From TrEMBL:
<comment type="function">
    <text>Coenzyme A-transferase that converts butyrate to butyryl-CoA.</text>
</comment>
<protein>
    <recommendedName>
        <fullName>Probable butyrate:acetyl-CoA coenzyme A-transferase</fullName>
        <ecNumber>2.8.3.-</ecNumber>
    </recommendedName>
</protein>
<dbReference type="GO" id="GO:0019605">
    <property type="term" value="P:butyrate metabolic process"/>
</dbReference>
<keyword id="KW-0378">Hydrolase</keyword>
<dbReference type="GO" id="GO:0006084">
    <property type="term" value="P:acetyl-CoA metabolic process"/>
</dbReference>
<dbReference type="InterPro" id="IPR037171">
    <property type="entry name" value="NagB/RpiA_transferase-like"/>
</dbReference>
<feature type="domain" description="Acetyl-CoA hydrolase/transferase C-terminal">
    <location>
        <begin position="277"/>
        <end position="434"/>
    </location>
</feature>
<keyword id="KW-0808">Transferase</keyword>
<dbReference type="GO" id="GO:0016787">
    <property type="term" value="F:hydrolase activity"/>
</dbReference>
<dbReference type="InterPro" id="IPR046433">
    <property type="entry name" value="ActCoA_hydro"/>
</dbReference>
<feature type="active site" description="5-glutamyl coenzyme A thioester intermediate">
    <location>
        <position position="243"/>
    </location>
</feature>
<feature type="binding site">
    <location>
        <begin position="218"/>
        <end position="222"/>
    </location>
    <ligand>
        <name>CoA</name>
    </ligand>
</feature>
<dbReference type="InterPro" id="IPR003702">
    <property type="entry name" value="ActCoA_hydro_N"/>
</dbReference>
<comment type="pathway">
    <text>Lipid metabolism; butanoate metabolism.</text>
</comment>
<dbReference type="InterPro" id="IPR038460">
    <property type="entry name" value="AcetylCoA_hyd_C_sf"/>
</dbReference>
<comment type="similarity">
    <text>Belongs to the acetyl-CoA hydrolase/transferase family.</text>
</comment>
<keyword id="KW-0276">Fatty acid metabolism</keyword>
Length: 447
């Protein structure tokens, strides 16, 4: 049978495809821009026929029909590997649960521990060899379809093919059903406004990056600020190795600073695992032979990162306590994002020859309810707050007031260094609290 004949044989409507889902099933929606649209809508239409269908997804950037039609969660139960803004709102309403993980373990979780009755994933149109490219979402997609009892692909004509890498496609022979249809434009994340504090932090970090370095940037205004500053600097021959491909890399590349030729591994190629950003970023990725996608168990493996000289990792957090414990995913019991690969990159940056790992945050924020200025550097984290990076893995902490290298430091050294980069109006209170905790020496510097 020819590829065209086999393809035609597997085409069904979205409504027909979702008939394979049974009550009690685990259905996987993939991750970020790899998640289905038409199949989600079709599954929602079966609400009255189904009960207790559990769905996994993550970083959802468009509304979920299965959630919208079932606010009581009797028919569909949605769960996320990493919260987007949308999923955070759903969680606040009791409509989404978090799945704790260290991101690099995600493929292993599927291959070793999880059940997948039906996988529904978004892919590019088939190529002449029968392959459907995973486009923006490599991550753990191959592991998901390997484990699934039934695989349904939703072909999105707007998704670009990503050339190169590993485990970045699925063959026609591995697919049970194919769904076609017209799709809306791909959801975007446009770079936000950069604050003065973020500009100061970006300048401190940029000064620590040497020529020929390989960089990793997280999501948000701060990485965007660092990318902009690098693009305007005299740095050259930079490379990237990152879980999430964001606009900052495109900006640096278009400024002529990104060659990837100094990398020890994947030389000449920028490496990523999933992508989300502006429409300009999506076009930059399309057919770009200088970019390769890899599964997250390769990209986020600290052993892989340790092979890259001068690997500089830059990530955000919510708050840090005086011991150097970093909270990046929750504020008390309120879940905000996810562990992601932050701990992996903190470890990998430190293991790299000449590498550094930075956790960055503005020193203060304004409480929305009280209007009061509060410190992000605190004596102790709130009760129920998830610790993303333990104090034992702390490296460089950065605010607009400076850089604190915490690696290998005693508790009193950490307290002193962290207070030094806090907002001056909080120094006295933080010192007082450090004394109560028994981590302040009389010989410590008074700010």
């Amino acid at each position: 049978m020819s590829l065209k004949q086999e393809y035609k044989k597997k085409i069904v409507s979205a409504n027909e495809a979702v008939k394979v889902v049974k009550s009690g099933d685990w259905v996987d929606y993939s991750f970020c821009l790899g998640q289905p649209v038409a199949l989600d809508q079709a599954l929602a239409l079966r609400k009255e026929e189904l009960f207790d269908v559990k769905i996994r997804g993550g970083l959802r950037m468009a509304p979920l029909a299965v959630v919208d039609v079932d606010p009581e969660r009797e028919h569909f139960c949605y769960n996320s590997w990493h919260f987007s803004g949308l999923e955070r709102q759903l969680s606040d309403k009791g409509l989404c649960n978090y799945i704790p993980m260290i991101y690099r373990n995600k493929p292993l979780h599927y291959r070793k521990s999880l059940e997948v009755d039906v996988a529904m994933i978004m892919v590019t149109p088939m190529d002449e060899y029968g392959n459907f490219n995973f486009s923006f979402t490599n991550s753990a997609t191959k592991a998901i379809v390997e484990k699934a009892k039934i695989v349904i692909v939703e072909v999105n004509e707007n998704l670009p093919r990503v050339i190169g890498g590993k485990e970045n496609s699925i063959h026609l022979s591995e697919i049970d059903f194919i769904v076609e249809g017209n799709h809306p434009d791909i959801p975007v994340i446009n770079p936000g406004k950069i604050s003065e504090e973020e500009i100061k932090i970006a300048a401190l970090i940029a000064a620590e990056i040497p020529n020929g370095a390989t960089i990793q940037l997280g999501i948000g205004g701060l990485p965007n600020a660092v990318g902009t500053m690098i693009a305007e600097s005299d740095l050259k021959d930079l490379g990237f190795h990152t879980e999430m491909l964001v606009d900052a890399y495109m900006v640096i590349d278009k400024a002529g600073k990104m060659t990837n030729k100094k990398k020890n591994i994947n030389m000449g190629k920028g490496v990523f695992s999933f992508c989300a950003g502006s429409s300009d970023l999506y076009e930059w990725v399309r057919g770009n032979r200088q970019i390769e996608s890899y599964p997250i168990n390769y990209v986020n493996d600290p052993a892989v990162m340790s092979q890259i000289d001068h690997f500089i990792t830059i990530n955000n957090c919510i708050e840090v306590d005086l011991y150097g414990q970093v909270a990046s995913e929750s504020a008390g019991k309120r879940h905000i994002s996810g562990t992601g690969g932050q701990l992996d990159f903190v470890t990998g940056g430190y293991l790299s020859n000449g590498g550094k790992s930075f956790i960055a945050l503005t020193s203060t924020f304004v409480d929305k309810k009280s209007g009061e200025l509060k410190s992000r550097l605190v004596p102790s984290l709130m009760e129920s707050t998830a610790i993303t990076n333990p104090r034992s893995q702390a490296h460089c902490l950065v605010t607009e007031w400076g850089i604190a290298d915490l690696a290998g430091r005693t508790t009193w050294e950490r307290a002193e260094r962290i207070i030094q980069i806090s907002h001056p109006s909080f120094h006295d209170e933080l010192i007082k609290q450090a004394e109560k905790l028994g981590i302040w020496r009389k010989t410590n510097k008074r700010m």
